């Protein structure tokens, strides 16, 4: 994606100080129009249904939505609004999960006014939204396999601290099948063992307020 004239942008950011800085910086760009600055996914969907938006900047969680649930929302949003460029702007550095969102680009949130300015400048100057970008000195391409829709559904249940037996009952699948799917998910996310997977699911099930926010 190359930035176009009169680009229409929406920002979904639960931290008001970050959204204030980002919207201020973007408004300073004469060809960018802010169509909405909101703090939750429900309002973001409403904005996209009511207004023409070209680009969405979004965190991956809000006050009611966990990291996994937020990424699931963004996956579905990208499928529904395929013409919109979704840019994740986040403090959550879990590439294996973030890449599952199918977002056009992923940038790590930088702290403070100057950090936000640097982050916005990097985004605005990008010529392509194909690669997954982190801080310039830690730029990397990740080759994680995308989970299937059912694997993603099971992953959401694991993030809600459901057991294999509970998930098998909820999905009308056998215990052995869900156990196999868990191992497939771990392979695709490059998680080495059950302890690491459990720790990842505890974090991925966190919501704004549970997860330590950035301090500005």
From TrEMBL:
PROSITE patterns: RESPONSE_REGULATORY. Keywords: DNA-binding, Plasmid. Signal peptide: none annotated. The keyword Ubl conjugation does not apply. One of its GO terms (molecular function) is DNA binding. GO terms for biological process: phosphorelay signal transduction system; regulation of DNA-templated transcription. It comes from the Bacteria. Residues 8-124 form the Response regulatory domain. This is Response regulatory domain-containing protein. It comes from Rahnella sikkimica.
